[in-house]
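Weekly modeling sync, notes
Attendees: AB, CL, MP (scribe)

Item 1: holo prediction request
CL wants a bound-state model with V47 before deciding which constructs to order. AB pointed out that an apo prediction alone won't tell us much about the pocket. Agreed to run with the ligand included and paste results into these notes for async review.

Input as submitted:
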Amino acid sequence: MLKTISDKVNQGERLTLEEGLFLHDKVDLLTLGELANIVRERKNGNYAYYNTNIHLNPTNVCVYRCTFCAFRSDLKSEKAYEFTDEMIQKRVLEAKDAGATEIHVVGGLHHLKKFDWYLNVVRVIRETYPDIHIKAWTPVEIYWFSHITRKPVRWVLEQMQEAGLDSMPGGGAEIFDEEVRKQICEHKADSKVWFDVHREAHNLKLRTNATMLYGHLEQARHRIDHLCQLRALQDETGGFQTFIPLAFHPDNTGLDHLPRPSGLTDLRVMSISRLMLDNFDHIKAYWIMLGEKTAQVALSFGADDLDGTVVHELIYHDAGAKTPEGMTVSQLHRMIEEAGRIPVERDTLYRRVIRNGAQWTSGEVIASSIAQSV
Ligand code: V47
Ligand code: SF4
């Protein structure tokens, strides 16, 4: 079967679910990496992308209790927090001073906050820094807003767009298999809702990302099925930009008896994601989650993007990540160059960023065709 798969990869043909499983279970990591690198270089040449971004988690209070989550807090807990307008403005001005092109916003589903509170978060960001790209809310949050307002998802998305929303991050996907999902995030929006919200967002011309949380209770077949489901929606809408495999961090979670996925598993999942998601342009090695060393190596195992400077990351650090909470542009350049790739600063929509200090403009879309020019 490996020869058939290898021929298909070389000819740019789609792999089946069975072939994905075979790769996952039977093929050695270096062969996997070599195959994934063919696709990676075909789509993105020798470039490795990063962006200048900042995170904002407006509240950690959450009505749900996902067993993998160390970030959430009970309403009355000492750990509970919520951002005021002034705190949001301060964070956004920090982003502006740093020349950030993107703000990444996700948080908990607060028991008492109304939809207007969340809408206001987006409005305050937009008013404080009109040029920044606002990538905010997962389908879990959008569906929650639809639930508390009793309005359709489309209406919620339109309200958010009007307030300044530009795109959506990939979170909340976890694992689409409902049996596993029940064990790690019962009650939360199910996989059908996750897909429906992305489909609606794509219909409204919002680009979105996708993720998969691995290394907890799932098995290989759940991972491959997850990737095939994403590939199917991408065939339908073409609205996904990037896929980000997320390794489970067990510290301070309800699943803290589980070991962290090994570096070899991280690279295996990265490679298989690149091979299965033939209709995704980008695969992200989120350095915060993988650690700098594995993220560097991942640039040769299918990944073409490291995410960004990040700053103020909480979700992984609450769950025991030992990585720094942010990185400078020169550190990102060094990581990429050491890995033998060419660093390119992109904006959220994968346009080249043209920069003069903190001032920046977006240039041309770095299309797949760049592969030919490298
Ligand atoms: O949905 C939560 C995951 C996600 C843990 O779109 C955990 O550019 C591991 O989606 N261990 C949120 N994972 C983060 C996310 C993301 C990150 C970076 C970039 C983008 C993007 C999206 O983090 C959650 C969940 O799947 N998560 N807790 C944990 N203990
Ligand atoms: Fe709440 Fe999100 Fe954590 Fe689940 S993952 S408990 S929805 S903050």
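Recorded for review: The chain has a mean pLDDT of 95.
Action items: CL to compare against the apo run; MP to circulate these notes.
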